[in-house]
Amino acid sequence: MPKQIIINSVSGNSPFDFYACDITNTYCYLIASSVIAPPVLILDIPPPLDVASVVNVKVIDSSGCTEFINYSCSPTPTMTVTPTVTPTYRDWETDRKSVV
Could you give the number of structural domains in the chain? Predict the structure, then answer.
């Protein structure tokens, strides 16, 4: 399942274009175009930004005004198997007798 961001509100004039950008705003990817923003908008974060811990969303309105929204993405926890060491019993008395 792709990572998603939820946008609750934007300011400006509809329609809007939404871009997902890296933290430096060097790489930006168009994720939605000509959107008349509903009360809640859910957008998928495209690769390669889907593994980033921080994503900037650049919103450009119909007047050309730009707004940046910063999102911190927490990693999804995954289940891992942790090996359990089984304690072993050693009979020191028997070991000592076998050495003598």
Answer: 1
pTM, two decimal places? 0.69
Tens place of pLDDT per residue across the chain (100 aa) = 678 888 888 889 999 999 999 999 999 999 999 998 667 888 899 988 988 889 999 999 999 999 998 988 665 556 666 666 666 666 656 656 655 5
Q: Is residue 95 assigned to a domain? A: no
Tokens of 84: 């359990």
Q: Is position 66 within any domain? A: yes
Please tell me the distance from the alpha carbon of residue 63 to that of residue 67, in angstroms, as a whole number: 12
Contact 3, 50 (CB under 8 A): yes
Q: Which domain holds residue 53?
A: 4-72
Classify residue 62: in a domain, yes or no.
yes
